[in-house]
Amino acid sequence: MKFTKTLLAGSLLLASGLAVAETDWIVRAGFSVVAPDSNNHPIVSVEDATSFTFTLGRMMTQHIELEVLAAWPFEHDIKLVGGPKVGSTQHLPPTVSLNYHFMPEAKFDPYLGAGLNYTFFWDEKTQGALDGTRLSLGDSFGLALQAGVDFNLSNNWLINGSIRYIDLSTKAKLDGLSIGHVNIDPIVYSLNIGKRF
Questions:
Q1: What CATH code is carried by the domain that includes residue 124?
Q2: The pTM is what?
């Protein structure tokens, strides 16, 4: 948690320090679906989850945006591969990205981005075949890539859509014994409404 707060604070300070011209803040808010890789572990499978997400971006130059992604917690069901639900977990995926906007002054403004993600899990629960065991999932740190587009409207409003890939792997333990890494590696689909300031 301390690392995440430091990462986010440092990114915002970096954005302020590197801005050399008049800049815009961009706030986007909406909903995202986190869709894990379907083959993430030979024993258990992490299911899709949807939650409220928002981003705060700053245009450092006309084309380059520094963006921070935050979210309301995602809650994922955990199932045995081909079987019933055996648990659940919550996670937050704060992500810092640099985005390159190809046509920032056009109505249709596509962009590509790359950055870093830090995901932490908590509130792991078990049931069914795993009832009575203690499940723990370790934090993850990895690369994040995205492609998105802003549809610029009047009065600085916009509609945004994006697709992200996050390199996300967590070390899973049952009653303190390792059952290996769960390679979640999700695709994240987002639809937002935003505004420039």
A1: 2.40.160.20
A2: 0.85
